[in-house]
Queue: 4 jobs
Job 1
Amino acid sequence: MIFLVDASVYVFRAYHSMLPDMRDRDGNSTHAVFGFARFLGDLIERVRPTHMAVAFDQRSKESYRRRLFPAYKANRERPPEDLTQQFGRCRELCRHLGVAEFVYPEYEADDIIGTLAGMMRASGERSAYITRDKDLAQLMRDGDVLWDFGARGQFGYHDIERHYGVRPERFADYLALAGDESDNIPGVPGVGHRTAASLMKAFASLDDLYEDLDGVAELKIRGAGTLGARLAEHRESVFLARRLTRISCDLPLGVGAAGLARRKPDLPGLGRFYDVLGFGPFLRQQGARLAQLPAA
């Protein structure tokens, strides 16, 4: 199994949960790096992965999705400057810990994770998605795990439908119909998550749904008689939304399974890194323990 970490979620969590008075020798904030290092070290100690990758977002106005829909994520405030500079150090931390890390211009961490999961699945490996982002549910296949490490429990493939009312393979279509407020993606007016899930139970995909809009009136859904006309009216925006909600799984990352194997930490480099950041013995001791774990 490969463990695929959605880094931004945990860097943000560390930024908001750790005391902000941690500084390096130049006065730069380091508390998010410390919290992320503790999270990543705890995860490695617990699961002892042979293969692991950490994916980072690179926010850009020229991103693939912003070009398609300029309002995409426009509702989000820009991260504070003292958080932005810590992301680069979190990437450096991964390298010192012997974990592959990725960022891809114009695309998101979700797309990196989707690409790596697809590559490993082709070689017979299952994936554990370490995230609190529901969007990654669409990548789930039987044997995979969706896990917000340190907070919520694990979700298996069949748990997704029990929790959200829709199978993972139809999750992107479901979000396109209902909209995704967190990403500023509008759905069909009057179509909430329950209605979207009902539609995705009745039809295999958006394509099948739009090929048989007359059949919507026969469903046991509130307002079914007028729902088909409303879906027809918003057809263009729905299919645009699916291009936004669907995770790309074909990025040219130029890496194979061997490049995702976890290596032993570079303890001298890690020690110098912690010296610069002003970190004490806790993380150094953890690093020493990680060096004793068998690597791939």
Job 2
Amino acid sequence: MPRTAGRLVQECGAGLIELRDDGDVLSFAAPPVRRTGSVDAEYLGRIVAAYGISPEQVIGHQWVDNGPGWAVVQLATAEEVLALEPDFSLIPDAMVGAVGAYPAESPYAFELRAFAPGQNVAEDPVTGSLNASVAQWLTSTGQAPTRYTVAQGARLGRAGEITITVEGGTVWVGGVATTRFHGTVIVD
């Protein structure tokens, strides 16, 4: 890829991922989803049981695996997502999320929570990979606009704000970033 001001490419487990710097906001291009489609009934039942919800509360579900193995359930409201108290003993190896809509007057379109007991992470405060693949699902099915903001991490006291933008078919996942260290690397 030719050099472009404000853009760079990062090599990671998902491949070569384009990053862009828009001032205070750093964004990455969502990698391709490796597994899509409905979650099978048995696994969905385990997720529902672990979440302590009724099957009727699930208004959608999808494999949104862009590498880590994510599956997500969609609930009707952000309030329902925030109320989840998962029992990880029922899904000890899972990489699962939940997404629910905020009312139209909210500054956020959705609340998203990410649970990764399979990686010894009970709940992740902000999850780029899950936000990326959920955005690909929701925007491609018309359930979300091409630009919206997601809230994540409130239940952990670490409220995060993620901006989703679709441009030219690419989903960009971004947020405000703070530089914590700075340095120079010389490669021979």
Job 3
Amino acid sequence: MKICVVGLGLLGGSFSLGLRALNGDYHVIGVDKDEEHARQALDLGIADELAGFEEGVSQCDVVVLATPVDELVKQARASLDIIREDAVVFDLGSTKSQICAAVADHPRRGRFLAAHPIAGTEDSGPRAAFAELLPGKMIILCDHDLTDNSALESVVDLLQKLEMRVEHMPSAAHDMHIAYVSHLSHISSFALGATVLEKEKNENNIFIMAGSGFDSTVRLAKSSPDMWTPIFEQNRENISEAIGKYIEQLQAFKQMLDSDNGKAMHRFMKETNDIRRVLKGD
């Protein structure tokens, strides 16, 4: 099977490495506009060969789009224009509504599938990719009823070979929920990092006092602005609503603190402990 991976960074690279670890009959053609990243991907075994966008996409059975979401919107339509008759295109972007809207009227809409793997790290580029990133993780397929059965089955087969857990969700619902459980987390991390950097002009104090709690909370602030800016732009309305709700909670906690209401703070934290049960799926 010939697979074209467009975007050879963390997600695209990990998808390729995960498949190649299965020792299946996969030939990966890598496409990346960053020439250094492309060379790294070749050296790291992410791709068997490199090609330009049209050359790579047009000759493969499966096309995986793993670029920033602003590029995905254009690449999805461009891919559908030139793929082989029986090929399928799917993306790995963090927002789904705009890309689904971009291909909605395309004559070959049925050969496209919108997907979002719930996986990642704060690192980026080919050197950040590793074969174990995706196996065992959740992947959400959006508006799958608009995808041809044969195309859907071929993608799901690959995902199941990677032992990914497949769920389905409408694209609009996906973008609303992901604003709260992913995008807001990244914004909170960036805001915390900015707050500390503004307050602690002496960087040595940060190094001395930063413990595991701070490190885990601010970890996402190390993420690539090139990737996250278009995500925030595409999901602007949902994220704005999520930030508003988050600010309300912060203001409520500040009021408890300012009024020295320890009982209210304790009750607030106790009730919020229920997130453990939610995350365990109990």
Job 4
Amino acid sequence: MNFLALLLGLGVERLLTHLFHLREFRWLDPLFDRGFARITTTKRGLAMAGVAVLAIVIVLPVAVISILLQDKFVQIPYFVFAVLVLLFSLGPRDLAEEANDYCTAVENDATEEAERTGKELLERKPPIDEPDRSISVERAIYIQANNRIFGVVLWFVLLGPTGAWLFRVLDLMRRRAAYQSVRASELGTGPKTVVAIETLHGIFAWLPARLLMVGYALAGSFDGATKAWRTFYAHRAERFFDLSSDLLGNVGHGALGDTESTDSDKGAAERAKAAMGLVWRTLWLIWCPILAVLTLYDWLL
């Protein structure tokens, strides 16, 4: 049932691009800010617990509704609810559209637009000089594929609507905490709160990130991906939640292999398009068939 809801949700999503702004859940920001303010005043050891409680409070209604709808009316209400939750858990922004906007801006030499779209993908100001900017954006595409799509999909398959919404809530909290941490205001989030949120998000991103990296290797250059994987662990990141993101970027970059040089605007745009192509091959040609086989196997048991 979850796999059928997944296929329908992914298919319908492409028809509802005009509703993507609803997935940003800005109305949750005041709740996040109040929760972060309380967590900031707690002891360091309790920060993680505070983040977990805040996430549970937001996820609990979806979990309760999912349980109540199970085995009701041949699971049709549950199926509809699962599709709706999945639709609003993906994103919040469309990754392919943002990557395309970046490529168009680079090809048209629209510096300000390229910087804006690059910032959306990187979640920070991109490097000014080439090829550093384009390589950073390319790696961000691989990372955002996990944050916006595959992490949601995997936890949806494992835990249903509750899992998808939980992953989205953690990612929304991570994005909000990062935004608040750089604001010079009384609502700014303390460093320990940011670390706690990113660590909890990193825990749930760990499994989909590893599976996505395997997909990158199978859909792209296997030798390049495995070499990047080994090289990264020789100089591994210090923080747990950085490990998955940084490793995803490096493995995806290695899996893409050699394409046109990023020294030119055309080469930079082609590299970003090729990165998006690798993401789609990984999702549709590698993991979608695998999930379908696993679902069929579960039905036959």
